[in-house]
Hints:
By secondary structure, the chain is of the alpha+beta class.
Amino acid sequence: MIRFTALFSLTLLACTSFAQSSPSTAALERNGATVTIEPYAPNIVRVTLSTIAREAQAAPGYGFVAHADGTDWTHAINSEGADIYTSARMLVTVAPEHRRRPGGKLPDTAKFFSGAGGGVDIAFTLPDGTPLTEMDGWSMAALNQKDDTLRNARGIKPEDLPLYTVSRVSFFVIAGHTPNEIYAGYRLLTGSAPMLPKAAYGFIQCKQRYSSQAEVLAVAKGYRERHLPLDMIVVDWFYYTKMGQYDFKPEDWPDPAAMNSQLHAQNIESMISV
Length: 274
């Protein structure tokens, strides 16, 4: 399981896709599983685990625009055999193989209930050792009757992946001293979302319904005369000649362009319901 401390950190799940691993990626073997440690910034690291090596070394799925960057990260193996990745902002420790928690011995049949792998323990801390989060004992369940994966496996094609209870475990950890640092890391990974037009954040007037151009302009005029805020007005349905037609009934909406010009002159945007 993954545990967090009160320090700011974010774990962002990421589906994997089929791709070669980045040169910045470090692939490790742990108890039958492949573990990749992939830095994206001094305070951002991606971890992917799978008993299927190509899955563990795959790139993030859709929605991620950043590229792995191992600049200013170092790798060392300590005296106990743990792999340690260090930057100025974070320290990632992947425990050595066959680490077991006290009293954690499991029977041979446990692989069908507790996972086929021997477990992977990964700790994320600040460089001074202050804990951020920890993954304790990840594993994948084998094909079995209990979860019905064995029977369902008969229907897959030879090129398909085997079926597991857990297969595409991939997540980012973003560390920061403030929420803004977390958001900055999120933006690095997914890109910046554009802001909506300013009027969309204001007051939008709508009702069922305004039946004519004259009525819309009269409502807008009334708001301004009473000094009430209005940023957008919605022209709801039945402005068109027939359902689904993108036009205006000329007898009720003689000049939509002129209507918009008058609204814009009052700093009011228009929206139509389609």
